[in-house]
Design a protein that fits this description.
With about 280 residues, the chain is α/β, with parallel strands linked by helices. The chain contains ten helices and ten strands.
C-alpha cells in the first residue's frame, strides 16, 4: 500500500448490529455516544434481516455482512462489531468465519429464546413452520424487553401508531424467526472458532433469553480476552433500560482497548469492579 493510500485510512470503525427485524432504535444513544467520542460508526442494514423487507436466508445475512466488512477494511485500519439481541448472534456467527475483527461486543446475545416472558408455546412455532404453516407473525408484548415502567408505557403508545420502536418491530414474521433459529444453531455449534476479544453484557433478569446463552458463549469461545458484565436492573434491551449509562460506558471502555493494547489490556481485569445484583422477585 502506498503512503498516500495509508494516509487516507481512518483509525477505527464500529459496526452496530440491530436486533432481528430491527431498525436501529434499539441501539438507544449508543451511536451518538460513540460518535461524540470520535469513533466512526455504521449501523448495519441487510435486506431481509433489518426492518422493512421480506426475510432472506440466514446465509445471505452472513454473506452480506462479510461483503460490508471487506468494503470497510479498505477504509479503516481496524473494525469492531457491537450487536444487540439477535444482532449479537449474527456478529458472533461472522466472527466464527474470520479473524480480522478487532473486538466484539455482545449485548443480550441469543442462542436460545428461554427468557421468563417467552410464551410457553414458542417452541411449537418451529414445528408449525416445518409443517407448512408459515403465514403467521410473532407479536411483541409486555414487558417489551424493558424493565423501566415509563419507557414501557411509551413503547406501548408508540406501537399504536408505528410498527417500529426502541425495542424493534412490533412483530416478526415466521420466515424471520425460522432463519434466526438456523442462525442460532450454526453459531452455537461453532463458538470455538471465535478468537476475537469479546465483551458480553447480560442482564440476570433478561425476559427474552436466560443467562444460559451468555454463559455458553463465555465458556466455549476461544478468545484470549473474554469478559462479561452482569446487569441487575434491566431486561433484554439493555441499551435503553435502567442501566443504559453503564452499558454505554462499558462498551466504550472495551472498544478503547484497541487504542492502547499494551497498557489497557494488561490492566483490564485489574481495574474491574464487581457490581451488586438485584434479582427479580
Amino acid at each position: 500500500m502506498s503512503d498516500s493510500s495509508a494516509n487516507n485510512i481512518e483509525q477505527h470503525l464500529v459496526i452496530l448490529v440491530p436486533g432481528l427485524n430491527g431498525g436501529g432504535l434499539e441501539l438507544g444513544q449508543l451511536p451518538q455516544f460513540l460518535t461524540e467520542q470520535g469513533k466512526a460508526i455504521r449501523v448495519l442494514e441487510i435486506d431481509g434481516y433489518t426492518f422493512g423487507k421480506n426475510a432472506t436466508k440466514w446465509t445471505y445475512w452472513l454473506q452480506q455482512f462479510h461483503r460490508i466488512l471487506d468494503e470497510e477494511k479498505v477504509k479503516y485500519a481496524s473494525i469492531s462489531i457491537v450487536g444487540i439481541s439477535m444482532g449479537s448472534t449474527l456478529a458472533l456467527a461472522v466472527a466464527t468465519q474470520r479473524d480480522d475483527i478487532s473486538s466484539l461486543v455482545l449485548l443480550s446475545p441469543v442462542l436460545k429464546y428461554d427468557g421468563w416472558s417467552v410464551p410457553w408455546y414458542y417452541p411449537m412455532l418451529r414445528i408449525f413452520y416445518l409443517l407448512g404453516f408459515r403465514r403467521w407473525r410473532y407479536f411483541e408484548r409486555e414487558p417489551f424487553g424493558v424493565k423501566n415502567p415509563d419507557l414501557r408505557r411509551r413503547i406501548a403508545e408508540r406501537f399504536k401508531s408505528s410498527d417500529l420502536s426502541e425495542v424493534g418491530a412490533i412483530s416478526i414474521t415466521a420466515h424471520h424467526l425460522y432463519q434466526a433459529i438456523c442462525l442460532k444453531n450454526y453459531t452455537k455449534n461453532n463458538l470455538f472458532e471465535v478468537t476475537t476479544s469479546t465483551l458480553i453484557v447480560q442482564s440476570v433478569e433478561d425476559d427474552t433469553c436466560s443467562v444460559w446463552s451468555a454463559e455458553k458463549i463465555l465458556e466455549e469461545i476461544s478468545s484470549e480476552l473474554r469478559r462479561i458484565i452482569w446487569l441487575g436492573n434491566s431486561y433484554h434491551i439493555v441499551t435503553v433500560d435502567n442501566e443504559r449509562e453503564t452499558v454505554l460506558n462499558e462498551v466504550s471502555r472495551f472498544l478503547n482497548t484497541n487504542l492502547d493494547q499494551d497498557n489497557i489490556l494488561s490492566n483490564y481485569y485489574m481495574t474491574t469492579k464487581t457490581k451488586p445484583l438485584r434479582l427479580r422477585t
